[in-house]
Design goal:
By secondary structure, the protein is an all-alpha fold. About 15% of the residues have low confidence. The protein has a two-stranded antiparallel sheet.
Length: 411
Amino acid sequence: MIAAQPLDDAQRMSLEVLTNTLGVPLGTAKTMVFRKRALLGLTPDELLDRVRTVADVVGVTTDQAIEMVTIQPGLLFDTQKNAEALAAGIRAICYELQAPKAEVVTLITRHQSVLHGRQMHLSVADIAHLAMLRQPTGRIAESSSSSTLRARAGARAAGSVAPGDSGDRRRGSAQYSPAAAPRSRLWGPSLNGRLAWATQELPSLLAPLALMAARPEAAAGLAPLTPRGAVACAFALHYAHRALVYPLLMRAPKPTAVTVWALAALFCAANGLTQAAHVLSMPDDARWAPRHVVGLGLWAAGWLANLRADATLRALRPRGGGGGGGGGGYGVPRGGLFELVTAANYLAESVEWAGWALAACTARPGGLAPAAFAVATVANLAPRARSHHAWLRARIPAYPRDRRAFIPYLW
């Protein structure tokens, strides 16, 4: 070790700089240099600038940042990247242990073994370690024991997150996911996830059929090769898949609260009637305009991208679990739009209904109903995409940093 080696004058001066700048004992400075020899080449200004960067990025005081770089000198090199990884790890620990940030930071700085090795982020083994350290306080979450946390270490190391494993049932939470917050009893009992999805989407298909049966003279003009007929077929195809096919493909769907199911079914019924009434009132004209071609082209592209995104997400979940089990797991999706955004399925569905609105809107009274539906879709999905994106970035330190939430390259 450097503490046992003779020092030349330059090394003594560098150690004094390190000691005086950070306010640490000489022995601590020697240990830091032993772990990171390049420290001897840093000037006082460079040391202070990097400590401030750690403090700003991690969100701690300067004194706490000094403690962290003393424990892990590697933070003083490639500082921005390493500090961001450490900050993500701290957020993950806070979420995992349901602990305030101040307590987690204190645990990390008091128990130096957590910040060891070459990696700046905190592993699941570190979470287990901190969980055991917190046990005497009586604040540890009910099921966040070291054994269950270590059981998830393999999934985390592989870059995946397991939303439904048994170790995630803490503080009444049955799912380890962005929707993991305990559900209020006001939402009512839960329904089988597969059945709930099918029956909440089915009104979007049945309501238009009922209206067409009530207005046979208007429905008679829905020839498939006319713009009006193509718009109607696109709407029906989407909801036939969502109500009849998609539920059969679901893997380990989560239970759905009865109130959420009822609200979704009510919206689908109202929207199905509104859009069907609009389509039946469209001009009975066989001529295709550019907006029909472009709009339905966007609809088809969005629909196919949505199918691919659903298949990608489905492949990350294990088979089995039943309709009401709420099991399953998630990994980091790859390929297609997922290389650009976290919520590729939400983006694809938004493009799909934006294209459909372009093809379906008319200048008649009420002719903007499709546009209102498209806007409502984006208003519903965009915040969910942002929330899911933030959750994944906080939970997975290695999550792709250049991937946006909802809009490629922008947001």
